[in-house]
Amino acid sequence: MSSRDDDESAAASAAEATTTDVELLKRAWRNEKAAPEILRFDSPLVSRVREQIQLLEETLDDFADSGVDDLVVSLYQMDLDRTLFLLRSYLRLRLQKIKKYTMHISRSDDLLSQLSLQERRFAKSCAEIMEKHLEQSVLSKLPYGYDSVTRQSLSSTEDDMVPEPQLGTFVFCKTKSDVGAFQLDDIGEEVVDLVADDLYVLRYKSIKGLVEGGRIDLI
Length: 219
Description:
Elements: H1 3-17, H2 21-34, H3 43-66, H4 70-100, H5 102-106, H6 109-112, H7 117-137, E1 170-175, E2 180-183, E3 191-194, E4 199-203, H8 204-212, E5 216-218
Antiparallel strand pairs: 1-4, 1-5, 2-3
Helix pairs in contact: 2-3, 2-4, 3-4, 4-7
C-alpha cells in the first residue's frame, strides 16, 4: 500500500472515530432505505444506541425528580425522540424487506447471515406462514407439476416464482474517500473515477462491494 493510501486510510479512521453513534445509525438508515436489498445488520451499533436510549431515559427520570430547568429537559427529550425515531425506522425498513423477499432470503445462507437473530426468526416464521397459506388456499387445488411454492412448474429450472431485489437499480451515492478508477462492468468497458465527497448515480450492483465496505454511502 502506498503512503497516499496510508494517509487516506488514517484520515478515514480518524473521521470515523469522531462520528457519533447516532450519526452512524443515520448513515445505516439511509443506506438501508436506498439499497434494493437488505444490508448486513450492524449489531454492535444497535446495541450501543439502545444503551444510549436507556441512559437518556434514566437521565430524564432523574431530571423529573430533581426539578431541572424545563429547557434542559426539552433538549434531552428531543435527543431521545430523534434517536428512537431513527432506530425504529431502521428496524422497520429491514422488516419490510424481509417480508417482501421472505422466500428469497430464507433460501440463502449468505442473506440469512446478514440478519440479526430476531430477524432470522422473523424470516423463518414469515416463510412458514406464507408456504402454509399458499398450500391451503391455492397450491393444493392445482394439478400435479404446478403445485410448487417457488417454481411455476416442474419444467422450470430455477425458482422463478420467488421475488428478488433488483440489484440493477440506479442509486444516488456519495464517496467517502478517493476510490480512483473503478470498473462498473465485468469486461472493463465502463470505468469511472470516483473522487472523495462527490455524488454519483450508478447501478447498485456495480458498487455493492463499496457500500458493504463502507467506502460509499447511499443517499
